[in-house]
Amino acid sequence: MSKEEFGYATYIEQAKQTIGGHLHIGRGGFTLHFETSRLSGYDCDHVKSLCIAAGLPVIGSREAPIELVAKLAVSGPMIAVNRHPDPRPWHALAYAPLGVIAAAYRRAGAEVFNVADSDFDESGFAELTDPSLATLIDGWLAYVRRAAA
């Protein structure tokens, strides 16, 4: 089956209608998060262009440093998809808003599309003064693991 034969449009529309719905592209392929489902594959550039054109949030971490992406994926909270975010503190098994996670990935060097500037929560970076990416991500993880003030 060619990529033209498989219709992603229905799944992308479902993701747009889902709170926290998004596309994540990493070194191992893509995952489209929607409702209570995920659709994964390897046709990354085709699906990415469809999602961007449709206005769906996209996080592309293929070009970000692998050590930072791994730290975010393993130690950071998950994106709340079709559910309410957990209250802070957020740990590796907690759910946080899309804008919080998108901001961390963007700071780590990932491409982020279709997330409104007003949705980015970069408050976890405000108190950090060391501009190195590794320090920024470590500081962000420490920030989100503290209870909200």
Strands in their spatial order, largest beta sheet: 3-2-1-4-7
Class of secondary structure makeup: alpha/beta
**Computed Rg:** 15 Å
How many structural domains can be distinguished in the coordinates?
1
How far is it from the N-terminal to the C-terminal residue, by CA? 52 Å
Shape: globular
What percentage of the residues does DSSP assign to strands (E)?
A: 15-25%
What is the average of the pLDDT values? Answer: 88
- Helix-residue proportion: 25-40%
SSE pattern? HEEEHEHEEHEH
The description of the largest β-sheet is: 5 strands, mixed
Low-confidence stretches: none
Describe the structure.
With 149 residues, this protein is an alpha/beta fold. It has one domain (9-144). Helices cover 34% and strands 17% of the residues. The chain is built from 5 helices and 7 strands. Strands 3-2-1-4-7 form a 5-stranded mixed sheet, with helices on both faces. A hairpin with a 2-residue loop joins strand 1 (22-26) and strand 2 (29-34). The model has no long low-confidence stretch (mean pLDDT 88).
